[in-house]
Amino acid sequence: MQPSNPHIFSTEKLASSLNQFDAIIDVRSPAEFALDHIPGAINLPVLSNDERIEIGTLYKQVSPFAAKKLGAAYVS
Questions:
Q1: Which of 36, 39, 63, 76 has the maximum number of C-beta atoms within 10 A of its C-beta?
Q2: Could you tell me which residues are beta bridge partners of residue 43?
């Protein structure tokens, strides 16, 4: 059993708590955001769609470490 994290909201709690936030910021790529997001959320992506594909390919074909290293460079 995973320990409870007070910063992770259940769907039910989030729905009833949305009015407590000035903005909901979604940092996923634009393609991920387009697939599904919280209504009213703002998309401020950390990676572009192309960068996300590049990182995912590197993760699968080379190594998770190499992908995390490049991802960290993109983010910084």
A1: 63
A2: 26
